[in-house]
Amino acid sequence: MKITFDPKKNADNIRDRQLPFDDVEKLEWSSAVIIEDVRKDYGERRFRVLGYIEDRLYAVVFTPRGDAVHVISFRKANSREVKRYG
Questions:
Q1: Rg for the chain (alpha carbons), in Å?
Q2: What is the residue range of 24's domain?
Q3: 3-state secondary structure at position 81
Q4: Model confidence at 16, in pLDDT bands (50, 70, 90)?
């Protein structure tokens, strides 16, 4: 799977969360929960994903761009998400 992202947002995420967007490639997509985010019009389709990398649940927001997954957000799942989806 091809992963793309904004380099500045990636640098910010590394600084703030110690998580590079490249790590989204490690996500176990086959068992992930993927939900389209229709809360508002973003100008493009957006999806929220909860999936595992090794033993940890992560949350990703992405938009499909051609044959790539364009990462918008990547973080550790919060306790509420872990309780519900973990």
A1: 12
A2: 2-85
A3: helix
A4: very high
pLDDT band at 35 (very low <50, low <70, confident <90, very high): very high
What's the number of CA atoms in the CB half-sphere (13 Å) around residue 30? Answer: 0
pTM to 2 decimal places: 0.92
Structure tokens at 46: 């957006």
Q: Give the pairing type, strands 2-5 and 68-76.
A: parallel
- Element containing residue 35 per DSSP (H, E): strand 33-36
Residue pair 6/74 in contact (Cβ under 8 Å)? The answer is: no
Amino acid at 74: F
CATH number at residue 27: 3.10.450.530
Enter the tokens of residue 17. Answer: 């969360």
